[in-house]
Amino acid sequence: MINEDWWQTTFGDLDYWQWEGTPSPKRTLADVGFIEQTLALPAGARLLDIACGLGRHALEFGRRGYQVTAFDWSAPFLTQAQQQATETGVELTFVRGDMRAMEFRSEFDGAYLWENTFGMFSDAENLAVLRGVARALKPAGRFLVSNNAPRTLGAPGRTWRGDPEKDEWVSLLEYEPFDVRQHRNSLLITLWNTRTGERKQHRWSTREYTFPEMTRMLSEAGLCFTEVYGDDADWSDFRADGDPWPFTPAGFTHRSSQRVILTTRG
């Protein structure tokens, strides 16, 4: 049984995330283009980036003139995001906190929870996250949540990353058998520092919800289902210029690897 507090260690270690790397600027622009278009944000809208991580989306939205609150539990993440905002002259509001206990009230025109972060906790705690989102939004405010589609629920396996002759860190990713009783996907990541011999281990585990489960939980939280998008789509335009990411309603099929749900506060 996985430790319920695994995320505190995983999200507190910048060595891991710096080694893992951040997506390319093209990917960030594609993400932001899709989010901006789908949330239908007015100019200068107030926007909540939940679990903002290193701030790549929040920074781009700030550059575009939105009033962004970047919310995360990880102090190391927020420190690095703040440094980058200062260096680039982007004005953002940073808030450290637990997304299961957000205290915002009717403040935001839109919000998003990206990068498959939703589902880390128990069912009751995941519902608490969504209720906090509903409270944070203004009436008719919109919210986007992305997570794995069923195609990505895989079998156990092992994958090495990195070149010990060139890289400071190499890693072994061990995919655990899918837990059919808890419906959780889990992963053990072991990192070795090729220069010092230091070894670190991190976990990743998410509750994988079916589409009907997600829509029921969103409704219970006070968020009305509006649309669902998937990435089984024509990628030609994205490959050409990178904006926006090719999620479409028609792209939500059994071949999708990612699912994005749009909701509106009731």
Describe the overall structure.
This protein folds into 2 domains: 10-151 and 209-265, Rossmann fold (3-Layer(aba) Sandwich), CATH 3.40.50; 152-205. Helices cover 30% and strands 30% of the residues. The chain is built from 8 helices and 11 strands. Strand 2, helix 5 and strand 3 form a beta-alpha-beta unit. The protein is globular and about 55 Å long. It starts with 5 loop residues before the first helix and ends with a strand. The mean pLDDT is 88.
N- and C-termini, Cα separation: 37 Å
Spatial shape: globular
Question: Which sequence of SSEs, written as H and E, runs from N to C?
Answer: HHHEHEHEEHEEEEEHEHE
Total domains: 2
Q: Give the structural class.
A: alpha/beta
Q: How many distinct helices?
A: 8
What is Rg?
Answer: 18 Å
Strand order of the largest sheet: 3-2-1-4-5-11-10
Helical content (DSSP H or I, runs of 4+): 25-40%
What would CATH call the architecture of the largest domain? 3-Layer(aba) Sandwich
CATH superfamily of the largest domain: Vaccinia Virus protein VP39
Q: What is the CATH topology descriptor of the largest domain?
A: Rossmann fold
Summarize the biggest pleated sheet.
7 strands, mixed
- Average pLDDT score: 88
Would you report the number of β strands?
11
Low-confidence sequence ranges? none
CATH class of the largest domain: Alpha Beta
Strand content: 25-35%
